[in-house]
Specification:
The structure holds 2 protein chains of 2 kinds. Chain A is of the alpha/beta class. Chain A is built from 9 helices and 12 strands. In chain A, 30% of the residues lie in helices and 25% in strands. The two termini of chain A are 31 Å apart. By secondary structure, chain B is α/β, with parallel strands linked by helices. Chain B has a domain of 188 residues: P-loop containing nucleotide triphosphate hydrolases (Rossmann fold, 3-Layer(aba) Sandwich). Chain B is 34% helix and 24% strand. Chain B is globular. The chains are: A alpha/beta, B alpha/beta. Chains A and B meet through α6, α7, α8 and α9 of A and α7, α8, α9, α10 and α11 of B.
Chain lengths: 318, 320
């Protein structure tokens, strides 16, 4: 049970950008800058951060949609690139943010869901057909829906189709990149419950990416907080909520609007925006906005250290 | 209680679609009191944006039209005003902050000019004077270096900055009533709390009233004093903030509150089953009945009316 399904070490992805006259000066956007993580079998790792913190780039690196510049990704005991693309696609799947653009509008639902099974020739035509109907029922749709096109479904139903497609080959890991942020609250709760019940039944791991801390803390076993391409803190969901160590995590938690008028905490509000990842601040990337910043914060970058067992934080305060 | 600043009475806004006429807002009545922050909540397609556009007189005609009801402001019915008369009020004493700061600013004009335009039109200011007032407005919404920012184009600003510019634009004429349509939806949580606090501070400073359109119940709990819940074009419940969260009466409001994942709570969510119905194909009786766990025969037959019940309003057969 405690076996790691995915281990990443010091992962980096820098995008070159040209700027200035005639694009002469070359700089890089450090989208993912030295991230190390592990995900256990059957667990959900939540990844939170504000827009531009590199969470989607990390997701693309994990699925192999993009190559890392530095660092290693170990998936099921082997390097990710040692697996062939076909092998990878049976074990690793992704659910995307926008259910309106992630399904081909010209393909029927049945063909969308069965595509991976057809490519991997995982059965006869009737077997695949039966599996599609089974999958549709599993995600809460009706078997006869396989004849329909994506436009005949609402956003929540499309996201269910995307989930059916992702679980078709019984993958070991599903990367969910903001799977519920385009949905209304009542539908969002339905999809969250669906993801949870599927995990219970099939025991796959999730990487669940979202900007919404309440959604992430609801579904995840462990939560990692990212800021400007780096991990700031990682802990179990309860521990992170009860005992947030990093000032950024504390501020994020305070900023989440709680649907209870009596529970409005002290409004700890930080000023300013996230700095541009093209020219990140020296030292700790959060220090210009941090209320507890010290001299050392602007000079050296803090390392991710384990404070309590299982609770890691990158901050000079600890 | 003082007389409400803005009174929406039985407002119905219809749209002609290829499939027939739909009532995007159906018989909505709301009061916005002095100093109040009224939140209008609901899921997408429930008519909250159309309601706010109707108040502002910004419904595109065709295909839309206000087919019934009144919007009473300063003893006049805004629905009956001509476009010219409405222009004098809009942006002046009745102002709006739009959704999506990325698309609501004109990309080819400088920030200063866009803020100044309102002042030149409504207050008859000259260019110089308008620019000075624009600097003041930018200072008010907490933009550093306002003098320099006037010369910026919208693309040079971040999302939070743009939303601040939108708010500055809405506020330069010191409106009595500000309508903010999902002002923080496109923003990160830390920026969201900055903007929410700003709106609240400004409301107090201007001694005005705020109507906040949102789908986020957390945002509602943070800033609102009253809440109106909309479903499929109708107001189904409206009540003071503490009542809505402590004792929601309508099953839809209860369902919405049960659907929200809460920080640090990993209990199974209890969502409302099904989807919001299409306005062209509304169920018979109560519009919520196919998704309601309390529905009984009457709900499937007859549509309930919005009734007053000790300071709150409710549209449900369970509360007759």
């Amino acid at each position: 049970m405690n076996e790691n399904i995915l281990e990443i070490k010091n992962l980096k992805r820098h995008y070159p950008v040209s700027s200035g006259l005639l694009s002469l000066s070359k700089t890089t956007v450090k989208a993912v800058n030295g991230v190390s993580l592990e995900i256990k079998k059957g667990e959900t790792l939540g990844l939170v951060g504000e827009s531009g913190c590199g969470k989607s780039t990390l997701a693309r690196l994990l699925t192999g949609l993009e190559k890392a510049d530095h660092g290693s990704i170990n998936f099921k005991g082997h390097k990710l690139n040692e697996w062939t693309a076909t092998e990878r696609s049976t074990m690793l799947q992704m659910v995307f943010q926008d259910p309106y653009s992630s399904l081909n509008p010209r393909q029927r639902i049945g063909s969308i869901i069965s595509e991976s099974m057809r490519i991997h020739k995982s059965g006869s035509k009737t077997e695949i057909q039966r599996r599609v109907e089974e999958l549709l029922v599993q995600v809460g749709l009706r078997p006869e829906h396989h004849k329909r096109y994506p436009h005949e479904f609402s956003g929540g139903q499309r996201q269910r189709v995307a989930i059916a497609r992702a679980i078709a080959m019984n993958p070991d890991l599903i990367i969910c990149d903001e799977p519920v942020s385009a949905l209304d609250v009542s539908v969002q709760a339905q999809v969250l419950n669906l993801l949870k019940s599927i995990q219970k039944e099939f025991g796959m791991s999730y990487v669940f990416i979202s900007h919404d801390l309440s959604v992430v803390s609801h579904i995840s076993d462990h939560v990692a907080v990212m800021y400007l391409g780096q991990l700031m803190e990682i802990a179990s969901a309860e521990e992170l909520y009860r005992n947030p160590l990093h000032p950024y995590t504390q501020i994020l938690l305070d900023a989440v609007p709680v649907p209870d008028p009596d529970m409005q905490g002290e409004d700890v509000i930080i000023d300013g925006d996230m700095p541009s990842p093209i020219s990140p601040p020296s030292g700790c990337p959060f220090h210009p906005r941090c209320p507890k910043a010290m001299d050392i914060c602007s000079q050296t970058q803090p390392k991710l250290k384990e404070t309590v067992s299982g609770h890691k934080v990158a901050c000079h305060l600890y | 209680m003082t007389a409400p600043k803005l009174k929406i009475k039985n407002l119905t806004t219809s749209f002609a679609t290829p499939g027939g006429i739909i009532k995007a807002v159906d018989n909505a009545s709301l009061d916005l009191g002095q100093g109040e922050t009224l939140a209008v909540v609901g899921e997408s397609g429930c008519g909250k944006t159309v309601l706010s556009l109707s108040v502002m007189g910004l419904i595109p005609d065709p295909p839309g039209r206000i087919t019934a009801g009144q919007v009473i402001y300063r003893d006049q019915d805004l629905v009956q005003l001509s476009e010219q008369e409405m222009q004098k009020i809009r942006g002046n004493s009745l102002s709006m902050v739009f959704q999506e700061p990325m698309t609501s600013l004109n990309p080819v004009f400088k920030i200063g000019g866009q803020i100044g335009e309102t002042l030149r039109l409504h207050k008859g200011m000259g260019k110089q004077q308008a620019a000075e007032a624009a600097v003041e407005a930018l200072k008010l919404v907490g933009i550093p270096n306002p003098q320099k920012r006037l010369e910026n184009f919208p693309h040079e600003l971040s999302g939070g900055m743009r939303q601040r510019v939108m708010i500055a634009m809405a506020l330069v004429c010191s409106p009595e009533i500000l309508i903010a349509d999902e002002p923080t939806t496109a923003l990160d949580v830390t920026i969201q709390s900055q903007i929410l606090r700003l709106l609240d501070n400004l409301k107090h400073k201007m001694n005005g009233s705020l109507m906040l359109i949102t789908h986020d119940l957390g945002v509602v709990a943070r800033v609102a004093t009253r809440v109106a819940v909309m479903y499929a074009g109708q107001i189904v419940e409206s009540a003071p903030i503490s009542d809505i969260f402590k004792e929601p009466l309508h099953p839809y409001t209860q369902g919405l509150l049960n659907s929200v994942p809460r920080l640090g709570c990993r209990m199974e969510l209890n969502p409302i089953p099904g989807n919001v119905p299409a306005l062209l194909n509304l169920p018979k009786g109560c519009r919520f009945n196919p998704r309601c766990s309390h529905a009984f025969d009457l709900c499937r037959e007859q549509e309930p009316q919005l009734i007053d019940r000790g300071g709150r309003q409710i549209r449900c057969w369970l509360h007759r």
